[in-house]
Amino acid sequence: MSCRETARKRDWSRQAGHFNRYALEKVPYTINRYTDEAKRLHYVLNGALEESIDEFPNLKTWVAQLMDNPEKLDESIKNGTQQMKNRLFIQT
After folding, report:
1. Of the chain's two ends, which shows fewer C-beta atoms within 10 Å, N or C?
2. Is 37 exposed, middle or buried (0-12, 13-18, 19+ CB in 10 A)?
């Protein structure tokens, strides 16, 4: 999946979320169109990830370990979130 396709998935997902949650007028056609396209793009991304993970055995092992241990997954997410905050908000 290219960078453009990834960005497109993000945009469709945001729009789907907006029309499903925040739109004052619920228009079924619009909700269905954005939701269905976001789902389709997620399936494309999922397929690309399934194909490429075999190329990276260490990544595949790490993902398997995280899936087998939910507590480790939660810890990894918390640590990653904190690291990202540290990078984005450098304290002086």
Report:
1. C
2. middle
Separation between Cα atoms, residue 58 and residue 85, nearest integer Å: 26
Q: How far is CA 49 from CA 23, 24, 26, 43, in A?
A: 32, 36, 34, 10
**Residue 71 banded pLDDT, cuts 50, 70, 90:** confident
- CA-CA distance, 17 to 20, in Å (whole number)? 5
Q: Which strand (E) or helix (H) includes residue 78?
A: helix 70-88
Domain ranges of the chain: 1-55, 57-92
Q: Which amino acid belongs to residue 62? A: W
Question: What is the band of 92 on the pLDDT scale with cuts at 50, 70, 90?
Answer: very low
CATH number given to 1-55:
1.20.1050.10
The token pair at 79 is: 């640590």
Higher pLDDT, 11 or 33: 33
